[in-house]
Automatic annotation (TrEMBL):
A GO biological process held by the record: enzyme-directed rRNA pseudouridine synthesis
MF (Gene Ontology): RNA binding; rRNA pseudouridine synthase activity
Protein name: Pseudouridine synthase
EC number: 5.4.99.-
Organism: Marinithermus hydrothermalis (strain DSM 14884 / JCM 11576 / T1)
């Protein structure tokens, strides 16, 4: 939602204070102040980028969009809802949880590592579409040692059932059963299928980075934090958008 004159109930719902119905109850209870005055009318219009907004005595900072970095643990699915398994949204603390957050790309249920979530559909599209050439960096452990020929095949673009992959960078680490991989696309089970096409199997997979953002080393599996202004700016610049 862009800044400008908006209904206060819509603004508060956008900021995560509940549904429009819940927000109206909050307003009627006198829990909201605008520029120091209690506001009870849900239809009151204001510019959230200019007004001083307080909810339950706390100043609320206006954000057009919300962005979260999650260290996705193994065992949860990259979805907003699932009838059988815990989802990445279930990992978020109440302070970060929002129904309109969407995962940027997809990590398999048994894959862990960096997962970004955002409310900005335009940013999500550019971060995931191959046209924008946003690199995704992975660390993988393999059943069999990788070979220099595998790195050459990845660089040339492996052929999967739906067609040829974009060229990828495969770096063999000191132990060739451990590799670093850079992709510029995100097909279904792509990393596992690429190694399977070379007669190998991935036993462990972790995403380390998306574009200019690396997984925060302070985060543990299942932990999340809001992206800071500098990280958000780098992310938008990487795909040619304005924050």
């Amino acid at each position: 939602m862009a800044a400008g004159l908006e209904r206060i109930d819509k603004i508060l719902a956008h900021l995560g204070f509940g549904t429009r119905k819940e927000v109206k109850r909050l307003l009627r209870a006198g829990g909201v102040r605008v520029d120091g005055r209690v506001v009870r009318d849900p239809g009151m219009k204001l510019d959230p980028a200019r007004a001083r907004l307080e909810v339950a005595g706390e100043v609320v900072v206006w954000q057009r969009h919300h962005h979260v970095m999650l260290y996705k643990p193994a065992g949860v699915v990259t979805a907003t809802r699932d009838a059988r398994h815990a989802t990445v949204l279930d990992c978020l603390p109440a302070s970060l949880a929002r129904k309109d957050l969407l995962p940027v790309g997809r990590l398999d249920r048994d894959t862990e590592g960096l997962l970004l979530l955002t409310t900005d559909g335009a940013l999500l599209h550019r971060l995931t579409h191959p046209r924008w050439k946003v690199p995704k960096v992975y660390y993988a452990e393999l059943e069999q040692p990788a070979r220099p020929e595998d790195a050459q095949a990845f660089a040339e673009g492996l052929v999967l059932s739906e067609g040829r992959c974009l060229p990828a960078e495969l770096e063999l680490l000191e132990d060739p059963r451990r590799v670093r991989l850079v992709l510029w696309e995100g097909r279904y089970h792509q990393v596992k299928r690429m190694f399977a096409a070379r007669g190998n199997r991935v036993t462990y997979l972790k995403r380390l980075a998306v574009g200019p953002l690396e997984l925060d080393p302070k985060l543990k599996p299942g932990e999340a934090r809001a992206l800071g202004a500098a990280g958000v700016a780098r992310l938008y610049r990487a795909v040619g958008l304005e924050p």
